[in-house]
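As noted in the main text, all predictions were made from sequence alone. Below is one such record, for TetR/AcrR family transcriptional regulator.
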Amino acid sequence: MARTQGSHSDITGPKVREAALRLFARHGFAAVSMRQIATEVGVQAGALYNYTSDKQSLLFDLLKAHMDGLLAGWKQEAVRLEASDPRAALEAFTRFHIRFNTQRADAVFISYMELRNLSPENFEAIGALRRTYESSLEDILAQGARLGVFSVQEPRITAMALIAMLTGVNTWFREQGRLSLPEVETLYWNMVRQTVGA
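Prediction:
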């Protein structure tokens, strides 16, 4: 069958991922078929296999792309920080996490809700990326505790609790709401600061 008009790999590939992300977030991974994704993109179902080997690979690619972007974004943010100032690093992490994730609500949603649908190998790969990100916050907290800047007994547990709290912004924040995103960042930074006794 001839290629669908306007279907080029550099255009259709991203459209396939965008459609899958949208559909997985709206209906759940298990409920979405490759045929539905193809219909959303406007290509024949068989054409999807030019862009992904199967639905599992597509889910893994979406979750990995999100984590790769998150880690790269934080690395870029972190290079601007003074290495000896854990308080400034913690504030930067707080604001970065909120800002990055509120712009990617669907990706964040499936990153948490669809982990269970990954194969064991893919689950471990995404888990390793998540642990890398969590460890960057854990290191900030541990350094702050060593310097007496923070009052934290368990940096690892505190890091996971803070990330869960910050990620929760996605469940309620709306751009048209009463608070602007910078105001939300400041509100949450105050909560984080109080949590670690900074």
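Residues 16 and 41 are 6 Å apart (CA to CA). The chain has two domains: 1-52, 61-195. These features were considered when defining construct boundaries for the mutagenesis experiments described in Section 2.9.
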